[in-house]
Amino acid sequence: MRTHIAADAESYSKPIPDILSIIKDSYNELRPAERQVADVVLADVTFAVDASNAEIAKRAEVSEPTVTRFCRSIGCDGVRDFKLKLAQSVVVGRLYLAPGEPMPPTTDGSPLWSVVFGEARNALAEVERGVDPADILKAADLVAGAKQVVIFGLGGSSTALAQETQNRLFRYGVAAISHSDPYVLKMTAATLKPNDLVIAISGTGRTREVIEVVELAKHYRAKTIGITAPDSELASICDIKLTVEIPEYPDPLKPTASRYAFLLIIDLLSTAVGYRLDPSARETLRRIKYTVLAHRKGKVLEPLGD
What we know:
disordered N terminus; alpha/beta
């Protein structure tokens, strides 16, 4: 890709719309000749970014003014404006624009069977290699000694992980609650006191809202634990860092593997908290199990509360 186009795209002053979606959504509204231009662009986005107006027109078998009309039909000021927006779309979504290599067939009919299991195993092994047990025990001491534990997480994975952390801790008798609304996060952080604890979860460690509420919590002298990526901004400001680096598989259709790693960290932490609070944790668990079995029949050795 030509560097001047990419550089211009990065410095584009306004929020850049998803031009590829605009082309696809407005395709049926275009004139037949403009659709030919759209077909060329969608078939080879990299070519369209690098090519001249004349080269695009030649491949689409239309006139150069038609290419200009196409650009204006999809809301661009002209060819240059179109290319700036298109270049940004390529930067953001290159992995999603072209099909990946076909996976070899398997006997069970699931081509990604080994990939998904392999990535999960790799994530768990990375936690075992990279997380210091001493840090888990230090974090457990903070949780066990806190008046309340507030878990923050934003986005799909981190929100679910925050809820799971609450689910793992409350059954030991820990006063734990999770939040995922940015405004509630900030308001909650403003209520914290020195004997409170924040567990902040972020896969990248760059989520601005989470970083800001951790800074606010520290301002009010609450302790903080970060479950996040190493060497990230979030990790740098937390009192205890439980971090792991999980490279993502380059296939965008496969679920992210890092959540296995973070779930394992949460399980390690919660188990350490359970042993730290024993025997009060056992009594809380017994009461929960007694209540559940009284509500619906089952076996003692079943998932607690499921």
